[in-house]
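Repro:
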Amino acid sequence: MYYCPGDCPGGCGTQCATPTAAPLALPTILSFTADRTTITEGEGVNLTWQASGGMEVSICWVTRQAILTCVQDPLDPDGGTVTITPNGPGRPGKPGITLTVRNSAGSAEAHVEVSIACAEDPLPELANQQMYGNCPYGTVAGNAAYQAFQGGTMIWLEGNRTIYVLYTNGRYESYPDHFQEGDPESDPAIVSPSGLYQPMRGFGLVWRTNQQVRDGLGWALAPEAGFHGWGQSYSAVGMHNSGTFIRSIDGSIYHLSHMGTAWNLFTP
């Protein structure tokens, strides 16, 4: 395409090329840094960046549940500082945090890595547990109670006031312990067969008020017994890779999978 403006050298007898705009360049990231390279799980880290030529910017990372998570607040594509709290390592070792600056021509990326130390340590019996893809959590240890039933077992942990119901078919359920001192410990209208028992206190409350528990467990085989127990949960890489370990009265360790509510005996 040619045109002949009035100021074209040589007048209209000379053809002049149509001027064209220079193509838009990709954004440039000048720097992307973290104020710390190691944090404890639950702590924040400050990220600072400088860039040019961008129209929008995002900062994203992958959580320990394999979920892509990004800063929700508006960010300045030219630079700034933001604080994030990574939810555990997005992959074993160090999580990658990605800065992406975009314009209509494309995008540029930069990465920083921050090591995340666990806030809690695995219990001694679980120190070599390979299912821990990340940090354990929810550790409790102390008073506990156990009771055997026709169709399974009940375990209570005082530390998290939780009652675990483990059925002989490999399923489990967990219930908050709502029993309070002064509540009725049993129901005198319920009479157990000879040699069997109605569960008492917290176990009894769950058993009496949840028909599926009563049907699944049947009668208790003996009175409940106290012991020193513990529990510890974990959440490894992947949305459904999580569970809880609890110690029973005889030292056995139960692994409760949060996916599918199944349990199995764990051998350290």
